[in-house]
Amino acid sequence: MNREDDQSPPPASPQPHEAPTVPPVAGAEQEPPQAPGASPAGATAPRRRRGPRPVPPGVEYHRVLAREKRGIWRGIAALTLLMVGMLVFAFGFAFLGMFVDLALGRPGPMNGGGFTPVAMAASLLGLVLLLPWSMLVQRWLYGVRGASLHSVRSLFRMEVFGRSLLVVLPIWTVYLTVFTLFTPYPTTAWAAADLIAMFGIVVLLAPLQSAGEEYGFRGLAFRVAASWGRGPRTALVLGVVVSSLLFMVAHLALDPWLNLYYFVFGATLALITWRTGGLELAVVVHAVNNTLAFLLSLTMHTDFEEGMERTVGAGSAVMLLPCVLLVGITAVVWFRTRDTGPATTPAEHHSEPTATSEPARGTEPR
Q1: Is residue 363 included in any domain, yes or no?
Q2: Considering the domain boundaries, does residue 121 fall inside one?
Q3: Dist. CA 19–CA 143, nearest whole Å
Q4: Predicted confidence (pLDDT) per residue in 217-260, tens digit
Q5: C-alpha–C-alpha distance, residues 195 and 313, integer Å
Q6: Based on CB atoms within 10 Å of each CB, which residue in 46, 70, 120, 308 is the most buried?
């Protein structure tokens, strides 16, 4: 072998991070070159999610709107919309009722006359609208379905509602009968036709008016304020306190005893909503309380304008009686849920099947 042959240069080795070039195979189909940043062939680009934001799994009722960012300004906007909407609905229906009374030739309370069935219907209808309005605000500002305000299962649990009604109705009947006996209100003359009309309006609209307030304050306001808290305890305290203060302010009472009652009413029902995981029991308590109170007032021919007086001196220490009753019911609910704890949303969120996906086992249509 010649020495010159030994001095031939060695073969070039591949550079680091550079794949060795593979010669093309004759007859093989070549893929066209791809632009930088393009998705690989056969891969589909991620689609932007449409529709409502899913309810987070395994969280308590008041934490459904919680996010990594607290969104304080978003919450303030939601609470402002809730309160402004309530005022707009209330005054709007009040003026509508005034015009209807004038058309009927009857001066209503806004015209210096007495309380009329039309004025009663108008005052209740304005608060009924808080129910759809609260759902709309939650969907608009947080992207979460309005139906999730019902409960952690995003539906109104009729079994919980029925059991609650069977227990609460007789208890509240006894309480309000005794309360009315010891705290009589001034009476006035009522026409028989007005009494019948008022009875129908109260039975039909008072439960819905109560539900509207619950969805607004124990639903939306409770969740919004709780979303500001980092930990579960801070969130619960914020939700209970803020929603109860708003509920108290919404009643425009100047008497300290009445304000204490409204705050305790809101706080206890917020705790009940937290423990039961839904608004069903809170709606029952509120609806039974308002409906029976109105019906007893009609039975006693009470002057509704005097009965709704909320200036200083309108309340007294007797308002401690309903406060004690509300605290007692809350304690019973807490005791009955001591082993399970507060109800939470389903642990796993199952997405809705698409047109190309196979149905899960046991969910095929029959």
Answers
A1: no
A2: yes
A3: 48
A4: 999 999 999 999 988 899 999 999 999 999 999 999 999 999 99
A5: 29
A6: 120
